[in-house]
Design a protein that fits this description.
alpha/beta, globular, five-stranded parallel beta sheet, Rossmann fold, single chain, 217 residues
Length: 217
């Protein structure tokens, strides 16, 4: 009998980071993201654990793209937990020229897509956890930061509505930015450098909504 806990992480480039295809699964296959550090830290702290991490993130994904592949790329692996960090590309497409060629996604649609993924996960009998997207600018009136904040406001409401986990990475970065520079964390205010990756991984790894996976090891 297989008693592994299957823990799926999914999202966009922040989680992808050159993971193996078709799925990031095991040593050397998780990519170079915060999840790779979580994977290693778990082995260091719990050498006899029964946690099976998977990475199905794809760089460039929007919430709509993730929703479209959610059944085949995420739920088909029968996860016990699904951690989702997605939404920043919904924002970015408004500012990178894609508005001339693509149907743009606005925050309410981002929330609707997330809600559909939450419901799919719950119907599968798994536990969804939202990891907030973020934008590394302390100015809440910056257009991109403002839109990310709006999405995260909706995501928090969904977490409360469905009583699921919510890991507020944006808030953690905001604490850092009170004294530290965003350029230490990221060159473009989104894709993390090593310090940014370290902050994300440590924050998630020690968060109560993540630590539940270690119960009953």
């Amino acid at each position: 009998m297989n008693n592994n806990k299957i823990v799926m992480f999914t999202g966009d480039s922040i989680t992808d980071c050159d993971r193996a295809r078709p799925i990031g699964d095991g040593f050397g296959k998780m990519g170079n993201s915060y999840l790779a550090r979580i994977f290693v830290d778990t082995w260091a702290d719990f050498p006899n654990h029964n946690i099976h991490y998977l990475n199905s993130a794809i760089s460039g994904n929007t919430t709509k793209m993730l929703l479209d592949r959610f059944d085949t790329d995420i739920l088909a692996y029968n996860p016990d937990y699904v951690f989702m960090m997605i939404g920043v590309n919904d924002v970015w497409r408004h500012f990178d020229g894609a508005r001339f060629t693509e149907k743009l996604i606005y925050p309410k649609e981002s929330a609707s897509n997330m809600e559909k993924m939450i419901l799919k996960t719950l119907e599968k009998g798994a536990k969804p956890v939202i990891i907030s997207p973020y934008f590394l600018d302390r100015n809440h009136e910056d257009p991109m930061r403002k839109m990310v904040d709006e999405i995260n406001g909706y995501y928090k409401e969904l977490a409360e509505k469905y009583k699921i986990g919510y890991i507020d990475v944006q808030a953690k970065f905001d604490e850092y930015l009170k004294t530290g520079s965003s350029y230490i964390l990221s060159a473009d205010r989104v894709h993390p450098k090593p310090v940014g990756i370290s902050l994300i991984s440590r924050f998630i790894y020690n968060h109560p909504d993540f630590r539940v996976i270690f119960h009953d090891l």
